[in-house]
């Protein structure tokens, strides 16, 4: 049986990956210290004899007994609010954590997949961003703990590939949304949905003209799984090229929530990227992958999940 270890497996993306790989018949060891993830994200998987949850900080020695065919390194704070709060932890999980995860892959003869990010392109001067673009990152700016941790992690991954013979892959993930995002993680979509559902002001940063291209989680996971079982080294962009301004995203969320919440303009964070859109030619040509879920549909599914969560919380409070 195929067996994988997923660091950060109790997070938003990690939990969807655990679920998908279990459904594919894979045995999954999920390693997480719950610094930004939640045990509840994988609670429903605990009944499977092919699933194991290990509470461990991957910046410490990473030991997984038994055979491992692939190591997926997804552990890292990922939202700006989280990595501003945890700057040193973010740099350590990108450096020491990546080193340990690569060491595990090497010891087991496993394929290694690094969850990198579109933030590797910083505030891009090339649009859309192909993998060949080197980026425009401020190494000492407020986002540097995340951007540079991921750029270092990519470099370490390539060093292990070239000098230690580890079969590696790098995925550059663009903004992804869906069920199991935390309402308080500060990212635009969960924030806007929570605000719209509560009828509170929807906080748009700056004038909202900055853009992001958002991908529904199921599409992203499909692209990641295809890259995992390929022999492509990457980096490979995975994301949905459908680009939207943040103001239009806020308006769309409000409409889909059936809300009349006002839009409130707040100061724009320093070094907030102005545009972002993946060039997914490589993923399309080499993995046969393209995203399928339209933004209205993906947002509607996400809003439904958030609504169910708030109804459930209300019922728990009333009980
Ligand atoms: P998340 O915060 O929900 O998940 C990250 C998980 O890593 C959490 O469960 C957290 O507890 C765990 N973790 C962090 N540090 C750890 C440590 N030292 N030891 C063990 N576990 C640790 O974030 P996410 O959105 O699911 O992101 C997952 C990965 O994908 C991250 O590496 C992130 O950088 C990358 N990524 C995500 C997006 C996105 O849009 N969600 C975009 C680009 C890249
Ligand atoms: N943003 C916003 N209001 C919020 C949270 C975020 O307008 O309440 C903006 C943010 O400044 C950025 C965009 O939405 O321009 C996407 O932010 P997010 O944190 O979701 O992702 P990232 O900046 O990491 O791409």
From TrEMBL:
GO molecular function: NAD+ binding; UDP-glucuronate decarboxylase activity
InterPro entries according to UniProt: Epimerase_deHydtase, NAD(P)-bd_dom_sf, UXS-like
Pfam family, one: Epimerase
Essential cofactor(s): NAD(+)
Keyword Amino-acid biosynthesis: no
Swiss-Prot/TrEMBL keywords: Decarboxylase, Glycoprotein, Golgi apparatus, Lyase, Membrane, NAD, Signal-anchor, Transmembrane, Transmembrane helix
Naturally occurring in which organism (per UniProt): Frankia nepalensis
A Gene Ontology cellular-component term: cytoplasm
Domain NAD-dependent epimerase/dehydratase intervals: 4-239
Membrane topology: Single-pass type II membrane protein
Subcellular location(s) per record: Golgi apparatus membrane; Golgi apparatus, Golgi stack membrane
Source species taxonomy: Bacteria, Bacillati, Actinomycetota, Actinomycetes, Frankiales
Name of the molecule in the record: SDR family oxidoreductase
Alphabetical GO biological process terms: D-xylose metabolic process
């Amino acid at each position: 049986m195929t067996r994988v270890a997923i660091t950060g497996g109790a997070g938003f993306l990690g939990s969807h990956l655990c679920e998908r790989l279990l459904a594919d018949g894979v045995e999954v060891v999920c390693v997480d210290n719950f610094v930004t993830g939640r045990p509840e994200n994988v609670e429903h998987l605990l009944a499977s004899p092919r699933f194991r949850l290990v509470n461990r900080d991957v910046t410490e020695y990473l030991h997984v007994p038994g055979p491992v065919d692939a190591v997926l390194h997804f552990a890292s704070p990922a939202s700006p609010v989280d990595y501003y709060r945890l700057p040193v932890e973010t740099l350590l999980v990108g450096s020491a954590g990546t080193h340990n995860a690569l060491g595990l892959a090497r010891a087991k003869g496993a394929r290694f997949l690094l969850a990198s990010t579109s933030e590797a392109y910083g505030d891009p001067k090339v649009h859309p961003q192909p993998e060949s673009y080197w980026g425009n990152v401020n190494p000492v700016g407020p986002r540097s703990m995340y951007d540079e941790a991921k750029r270092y992690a990519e470099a370490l991954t390539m060093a292990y590939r070239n000098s230690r013979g580890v079969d590696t892959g790098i995925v550059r993930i663009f903004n992804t949304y869906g069920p199991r995002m935390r309402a308080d993680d500060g990212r635009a979509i969960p924030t806007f949905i929570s605000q719209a559902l509560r009828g509170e002001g929807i906080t748009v940063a700056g004038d909202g003209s900055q853009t992001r291209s958002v991908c529904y989680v199921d599409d992203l996971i499909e692209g990641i799984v295809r890259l995992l079982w390929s022999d492509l080294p990457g980096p490979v962009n995975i994301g949905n090229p459908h680009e939207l301004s943040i103001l239009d995203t806020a308006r769309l969320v409000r409409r889909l929530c059936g809300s009349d919440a006002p839009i409130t303009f707040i100061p724009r964070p320093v070094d907030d990227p102005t545009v972002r859109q993946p060039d997914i030619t490589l993923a399309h040509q080499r993995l046969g992958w393209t995203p399928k879920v339209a933004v209205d549909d993906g947002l509607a599914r996400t809003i439904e999940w958030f609504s169910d969560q708030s109804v459930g919380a209300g019922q728990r409070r009333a009980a």
